Amino acid sequence: WKPEIKRQSKPPLNTIINTFDFEAIAERTVTPKTWAFYSSAATDLLSMKLNKKAFDQVLFRPRVMRNNESADTRTKILGFDTGVPFFIAPTAMQGMVNLDGEKAMAKGAREENVIQIISTNSSHPIADIVSSGKGPQKQTHFLQLYVNTDRQKTAQLLASAKACGLRAVFVTVDAHLAGKREADERLKVDVPVKSAVSGAISHNDEKGGGIGRLMGLYVDRTLNWEDIPWIKSVAGDLPIVLKGIQTAADAKLAVKYGVQGIVLSNHGGRSLDTSPPALYTLLEIHKIYPEVFNSLEVYIDGGIRRGTDIFKALCLGATAVGIGRPYLYALNYGAEGVAHLTQILKDELETTMRMCGVRDLSGVHPGLINTRKIDA
Ligand code: FNR
């Protein structure tokens, strides 16, 4: 597979000051098919748009006079150190925006000590991704798992992920079917794209060219709660996180089934349109089953574009948040773009913390925000 010639040249990286700059530049410089696959969401894009809007409707209740000379963004995710309370969400086929794909993502992530979650539909083999991120300091990677209809393949994938040093398994539970992503479907793929990890291939068929749909054909539609003991048995000592929880009731079930974490997510609005933004689900858990927060780690993703968004999620009890599309658009600039995006978000988060009177992440709490506009 070869990328098309870029449609326009890119401005220098140092002129980019926020996630939206990266997005606008990606729209006019990556190939039309890459843009369609990355930016698209299910049907009317309502969940995707609401994801960001939900954050915009939460206001701060800043505390002043707190000696905020600096702010410390370090924390732990599942016990692993990270420089920031956000991680690189798993996104498929990163080789479509940059030939080095997940390998360049790993390099950029290492620069700022960000945890990278590697998709089952990665362009590059896991071993290559992990080794290209290697450096003097230790880097943490997790695996995102799509359970295969051929369970043997899933068992093999987990064994090789463990051998490569991956530290946790994020099982995606909201994409057993592909969402109807019309922009992706309408635009045919020029050349088939293939994942080096799952082996899934996307070429056009009678329905269209939807990479999301075609690369998800191997995913087990029968997956259910009773499969969790099996997943645990093949994951061994790796912690299990369920990605794609959308109700407090399922969050409670996740506790019952003994997983170590959940990602509240609607898959960036790509799976079921009008599914709730993660922020709504977070509030619902607070209202109905707040004890969930004592039993496992809760992460959220979808629409997080600013340091203020990250801080709001943390105030509401999230241990960390996932960033999806912005990292894909930053990868348009290779590893340097990835590091640059992390610095931008970290800097925005530090500013927010200091303005709210918080010195380190042990100081976040719901009293620092006002959710009245989105409280149901
Ligand atoms: C995704 N996402 C995703 N999730 C997952 O569990 N496995 C995957 O392979 C992918 N692939 C993927 C590809 C692309 C192009 C996108 C945009 C997203 C979903 C991802 O992990 C995350 O939930 C959302 O991207 C979060 O929303 P934002 O940050 O993109 O708004």
Quick structural summary:
The chain has one domain: Aldolase class I (TIM Barrel, Alpha-Beta Barrel).
Describe the structure.
With 376 residues, this protein is of the alpha/beta class. The chain has one domain: TIM Barrel, CATH 3.20.20. Helices cover 37% and strands 13% of the residues. The chain has 15 helices and 14 strands. The strands form four sheets. An eight-stranded parallel sheet has the order 4-13-12-11-10-7-6-5. It is globular and about 60 Å long. The protein starts with 18 loop residues before the first helix and ends in a 6-residue tail after the last strand. The structure holds ligand FNR. The site of ligand FNR has 25 residues, from α2, β13 and α14.
CATH class: Alpha Beta
Give the structural class.
alpha/beta
CATH topology: TIM Barrel
Task: Assign a percent range to the helix content.
Answer: 25-40%
Q: Please report the number of helical segments.
A: 15
| CATH 2nd-level architecture | Alpha-Beta Barrel
**How many β-strands, per DSSP?**
14
Each distinct ligand: ligand FNR
Oligomerization: single chain
First-residue to last-residue Cα separation: 48 Å
Proportion of strand residues? 5-15%
